[in-house]
Each structure stands twice: as C-alpha cells, then as structure tokens.
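TASK: fixed-backbone design
INPUT:
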C-alpha cells in the first residue's frame, strides 16, 4: 500500500519565472502562475492565486481561507489536503504531453485507444475463398467454410516515481527541476509505448514468411537454399533499383492477401542513403532538375515513396543501456567456403578485417587442418629437421647480406663490371648456393616440385649477370623473404607428417561472418492493424517530513496489440549497418585446448562478436564438394533442406571433422526459426561458395554478398553513404607468373611489385 505522508511546500519567491517553471503548461496555467505576487498569505481568501496551481491545479473549494490556523505562524507548510492523493490535474498534463508529442508509432501504425478495461479481447473471422461446384438439379450443394479465432491480451501496469529534496525545491532551479521531472515521466510513457508498438509488430506472427513457405516448395533443392534471403540481403546497397523491385514484389504479395499497404518504416540512416547515395536520386540525367537540389537542401527528407508514407524508426536511447536500442537492427551470421584445388599452392580470399584480398597458402592451411596431422612418416623425414634448421640460418644470412648489398648499391653508380658490384653479387650467389647444399637431391622428392633445385642454381647465375638497376625499387628485403618462409612452411608440413596431403584439395570454411543488419516494415497501418491501449492513469503525491523530501508516483496501464498480422510485412536484412567480426583469415586451432580453438571461442561466448579471435576451419578432402552450398556439420538441418536432406555428408570426412572440432556444441543453435526477434542468437552453419582468386581462373561468389566483393568494399558494408561498384573485377585469375599470389597471408600482394624475374621464379618454383 502507498503510504500518504504530509508534504512540506515552501512559500514561492515573488520573482518566480513562469517560463522557467511552467514552460510547457497551457496558457491558463501560465496566467495563473504569473499572478503570484504575494507569498505572505498564499492560502488566504481573495484574488491571490495559490502558487501550486501551475503544478497541481486549482484548490477544490474556498474553505482553506476560513481556517483558523491560516492566521497563525507555521514552522512548515504541509501539502494541502486538496493536493494529496490522486491528482487529476497531473494526469491531464501527462496525457496532454503524450498526445502532443505523438509520433507515427501511435498515430499511423497502432493508434491510441483509451480503455478502462484491463483485458482486451477480439475475434478474427476468416472466410475461405473457393470455387462454385457444378451442381445438378436436386443435387446436394457443397457448403462454404469459414474460420473464427478469438484472442485476448492483458494490459500491463507500469510506473515511475520521482523524489526531490525540500531545500533544493525551494530554489528557482529546484522548481524547474520539479517540472522537468513531470515532463521526464511523460517522455518515459511516450518512449515505452513507442517501443511497445515496434516490439508488437516484430514479435508477432511473421505472416508472409509463413505464407511464402506454404506456397513455395517445402523441400528446396540445394541451389534454392536461402534463395530469397540471399537475394534480399543488403539489397538497398547491392542493387541500384533493388528496393524498388522489392517494394513492387512485396506489395504484389500483400494485395494477393487483400491488403493495401500505406506506410514504410525504414531503419535509421536508410532514408539518408536513399536520398543522397544513389545516383538515381541526385544526378540530373536520372533524377531531373530536382536531383542536384537534393544535395543542397539540408532539410530535404523523404516522406513519401511509391505511393506510401515513409517514416524512420530512430533508435531508443535508454539510461540503463550503454548502447542505443534499435529493434530493426540485429546481428546476423552468414557463411562462405573456399577450396584450394589440387596443384594450386595458394588462393586469395577477401578479408573483411583488412578490407582487401589476402593470400592463404596451402602450407598455412595444412598446419591448421586437424586431419592433416595423421602421424605419417614421409620418405623425406630423415633430412627434414636439418633442412628446416638450415633454412632458418640461411634466411637470416641472406637477409643480412642482401641488405648490405642494397645499401652499397644504392650509394654507388650502377655500372656493369664494377669490382665492388661483382663482389657483392658473388656473395649473394654463395648465399643462394648454400640453400641447395644438400647431400642428395632425392631427399627433396615429395616436398619440392620437379626441377625446383635447378631453379635455385639458375636464379643464382641469373642474379650474377643481371643489371644492377633491377635492384632499384625494392622497398625492403624483409618483404621478399616471404618466399623463403613458404618454403620453410612446406618443409615443416613434411616434418609433421603432412607431406602425403600436399596435393589434395583443402576446404576452407568460414561460417561465422557477422554483420549488423537492418530491416524495414511495410504495413497497412490504422485501427484495422491494431491499437495501443492505455488507461488507469494515476498520479499520487506525498511527502516525507522526516527526510524533508517530496514524492510523486505515476502509474498507468498499456499494451500494444496486433490484430491482423497479414497487414504487416517484415522485410528482413535489406540494409547493412556495419561489420562485427568473423570474416578474416585467421584459422581455428585444431588443438581444442588452445585459446583460438573453436571450443574455447564458443565457451567464452566470442562467436559472432567483435572479440572473436579466429575465423576459418581447414580440412583436407578427397575431392571438392559437388555443390555450391554445404553445412559446417556435414548435414543440413531439417529446417533448411526438408525431406531432400540427403543422408550423405556435404564433404568427405565430415563426421570426423565435427568430432575433432567439438562442433556438436552447435546442434541446439543451428535450427532456422521464422520469428524475427529471438531469445537466443542462432549460430550459422550454412556456407555458400565464396569469391576466390587462383591460377585456375577463380570462383565467383554464390553467397549473400554475391559478386560484390572487391578491395575497399567494406565502406559500403559498414553503412557509409556510398554504393557498390556496378562492375567488379572481370577476372579472378591470378597470372601464372605472379609472385604475389604466393605471398604469405601476412604480406600484401603489392609486396611483389618491382621484383626481378629471378626472384619471381625462385618464389614460384620453391613452392
């Protein structure tokens, strides 16, 4: 029970500012507050107006001026009895503020509706469409059918309170603070109901998703998996007319269900993108004379589009959350897989963390593939350890000597036949010859490709007779040592028993690429869609004379109700707002006790967050997958493929792969649900063929981003006001003589620029 205590109200200062204390009151309240001139007998009879009227309304009755204690001295003034308890005046002010600040949520989508009831019940009648039967004379007719459904909702009681200290209340600033507390409560009611509207729309039945499943094939083929989701993914940014096509498609589906939409609810920033980013909106040749004007008009904002009103749902800023809350935004995972084919030593794939294509080598993938370390004992094992050790030494000496050579060469004229130059080149030759100083060339068989040893000797001789000017333009010898690094990695693969897997396809799987995706809502708003019920507004005022504080407690009942889900369509994931993580080129460790293993990353809750430390799995397979879509666990969930879910695995050794990486942890999270708002974040396991560059011609992406993958594309994916390139790179093939294609993943492909041809041969054949 709420205990009513006497409230202490001090006399008002005669110079009290009306604009400061009652800025948002009605004109009548302002005039009442302005009439305050006498504070000696505020509660006497006559024309003197009570100073509390601007806040609590006029006193009820004139008996206050006839009380004997009005003529006596007082130690304190308590809250008059007329002001204690329920205050209708404050309820009116709060209700006035709510309605005056009304926005599209409670005006166009689910309008306000006052009720004294605590329970709301409604019925839905559905009359099924049918065709009239052929009926013979005196034949029995078939009856038409109808369905009815009764639903009920309960209004929820909510409330807020404020407290203000008596001494502070006596000041002009305190009185203004008191008024702003009332406005704060009104704003809280306003925000709560707006949030309730969006939550109601997004948590209700996703009617058109169910409708699409009902009339589409419930058992799609592999190529049809997530077809609509992939097509609509970031469609606003991927296609210049993507949203126009999507608008026409959705309106067509809604009209088939007897619905004529009238309002678009866009996520934050999307209207800016439509106004300024697209050429069709601002270029004269596409938008006409109004196009250039949009760039100059800072007040221009899209309000109507293709026959529908357009509004933008701003994020909700809440005091107990460090980040704003936007129900139209959510984190979403997508997956890609890549293949290092037979006979190819490296491929290039896109790294979102670096915003460019980077190289992944076969040796690097083998080190991180759990099934490559099977304890094989290749024929080269006796010499491998010594070779690795020798290469480490040679690398250091080569680096030191060539650094000194380059420094001296840069300081002297470039003349052929110079004695110093010949001496330096002779040292370089000796260093390179030391690389090939082994007892038997046969010991490299199975590790080096045929003819690789001879290439070292030819490289040394070519370097001896090369023009010294070819060394100009080398930025750093360190960048060129990546070729020796790749050779060393290959030796180490053999040392770990992985030599037998050097010429098999390697599957690279990256399932957890996470983005912040925004959705939109297309609806036929109004009372037929639903309503925001409210009622039982109640404001109680009291004070605590012991603590000398004043108290206010406001409660109300409200509930947003969606009556006809078919009048609302949630258009999911059409605008990318930013990259979160999981689309890099760091491998999950095959050692499940390691910090970068899947087990540790999953248990720490890093999957799908910015804190994730690994992105890809590596797995050696017998043959490349037959399809452009696979599942990380080797088998699709029934919610993805239905009855066509084949019993065979998506790739060879899938069951062993799941066991080695503890992927059974994903089983509770891989099912696809229809609901937009989910209690538990699902973890993606479905992966599509991703864009890759290699010497065999490369592969174009089949996944959510399609072919819109190129160096620098992350600016668009992060929601910046710009568009994707209309034409991406026409070729994904890496030239056979490109040394950069075999650089390590830590080195950019531009490191190979300016290298002499001999170095290109050294790096290429050494791998």
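OUTPUT:
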């Amino acid at each position: 029970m709420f205990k009513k205590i006497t409230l202490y109200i001090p006399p008002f200062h005669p110079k009290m500012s009306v604009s400061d204390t009652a800025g948002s009151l009605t004109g009548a309240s302002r005039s009442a507050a302005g009439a305050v001139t006498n504070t000696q007998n505020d509660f006497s009879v006559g024309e003197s107006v009570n100073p509390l009227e601007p806040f609590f309304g006029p006193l009820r009755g004139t008996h206050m001026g006839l009380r004997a204690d009005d003529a006596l001295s007082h130690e304190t003034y308590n809250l008059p009895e007329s002001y204690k308890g329920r205050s209708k005046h404050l309820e009116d002010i709060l209700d006035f503020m709510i309605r005056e600040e009304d926005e599209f949520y409670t005006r166009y989508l689910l309008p306000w509706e006052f009720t004294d009831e605590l329970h709301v019940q409604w019925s839905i009648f559905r009359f099924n469409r049918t065709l009239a039967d052929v009926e013979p004379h005196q034949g029995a007719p078939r009856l038409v059918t109808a369905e009815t459904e009764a639903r009920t909702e309960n209004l929820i009681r909510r409330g807020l309170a404020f407290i203000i200290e008596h001494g502070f209340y006596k000041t002009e600033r305190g009185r203004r603070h008191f008024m702003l507390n009332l406005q704060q409560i009104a704003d809280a009611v306003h925000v709560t109901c707006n949030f309730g509207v969006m939550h109601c729309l997004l948590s209700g039945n996703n009617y058109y998703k169910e409708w699409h499943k009902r009339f589409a094939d419930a058992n799609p083929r592999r190529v049809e998996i997530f077809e609509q989701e992939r097509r609509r993914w970031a469609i606003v940014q991927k296609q210049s007319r993507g949203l126009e096509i999507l608008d026409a498609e959705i309106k067509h589906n809604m009209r088939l269900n007897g619905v004529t939409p009238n309002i678009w609810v866009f996520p934050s920033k999307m209207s800016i993108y439509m106004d300024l980013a697209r050429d069709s909106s601002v270029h004269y040749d596409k938008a006409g004379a109004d196009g250039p004007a949009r760039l100059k008009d800072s007040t221009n904002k899209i309000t109507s589009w293709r026959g529908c009103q357009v509004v933008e749902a701003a994020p909700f800023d809440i005091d107990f959350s460090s980040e704003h809350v936007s129900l139209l935004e959510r984190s979403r995972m997508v997956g890609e897989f890549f293949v290092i084919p037979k006979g190819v030593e490296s491929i290039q794939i896109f790294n979102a963390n670096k915003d460019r294509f980077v190289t992944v080598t076969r040796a690097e993938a083998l080190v991180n593939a759990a099934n490559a370390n099977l304890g094989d004992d290749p024929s080269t094992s006796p010499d491998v350890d010594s070779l690795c050790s020798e290469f480490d030494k040679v690398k250091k000496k080569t680096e030191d000597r060539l650094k000194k050579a380059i420094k001296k060469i840069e300081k002297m004229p470039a003349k052929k036949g110079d004695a110093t130059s010949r001496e330096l080149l002779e040292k370089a030759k000796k260093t390179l010859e030391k690389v090939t100083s082994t007892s038997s060339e046969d010991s490299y068989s199975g590790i080096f490709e045929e003819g690789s040893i001879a290439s070292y000797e030819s490289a040394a001789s070519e370097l001896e007779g090369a023009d010294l000017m070819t060394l100009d333009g080398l930025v750093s010898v360190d960048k060129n040592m990546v070729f020796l690094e790749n050779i060393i990695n290959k030796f180490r693969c053999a040392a770990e028993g992985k030599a037998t897997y050097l010429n098999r396809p390697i599957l690279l799987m990256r399932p957890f690429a996470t983005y912040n995706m925004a959705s939109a809502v297309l609806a036929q708003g109004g009372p037929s869609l639903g309503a925001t019920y409210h009622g039982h507004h109640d404001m109680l005022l009291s004070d605590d004379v012991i603590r000398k504080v004043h108290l206010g407690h406001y409660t109300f009942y409200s509930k947003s109700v969606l009556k006809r889900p078919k009048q609302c369509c949630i258009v999911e994931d059409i605008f990318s707002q930013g990259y979160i993580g999981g689309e890099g080129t760091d491998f999950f460790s095959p050692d499940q006790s390691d910090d970068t293993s899947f087990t540790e990353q999953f248990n720490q809750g890093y999957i799908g967050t910015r804190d994730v430390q690994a992105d890809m799995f590596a797995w050696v397979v017998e043959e490349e997958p037959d399809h452009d879509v696979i599942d990380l666990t080797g088998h699709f969930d029934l919610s993805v493929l239905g009855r066509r879910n084949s019993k065979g695995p998506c790739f060879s050794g899938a069951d062993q792969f799941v066991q080695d990486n503890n992927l059974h942890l994903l089983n509770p999270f891989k099912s696809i649900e229809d609901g937009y708002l989910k209690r538990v974040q699902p973890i993606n396991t479905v992966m599509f063929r991703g864009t890759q560059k290699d010497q065999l011609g490369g592969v174009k992406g089949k996944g959510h981003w399609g072919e819109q993958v190129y160096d620098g594309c992350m600016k668009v994916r992060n929601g910046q006001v710009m568009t994707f390139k209309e034409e991406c790179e026409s070729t994904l093939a890496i030239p056979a003589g490109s040394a950069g294609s075999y650089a390590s993943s830590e080195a950019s492909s531009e490191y190979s620029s300016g290298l002499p041809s001999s170095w290109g041969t050294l790096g290429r054949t050494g791998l």
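COMMENT: The two ends are 81 Å apart (CA to CA).
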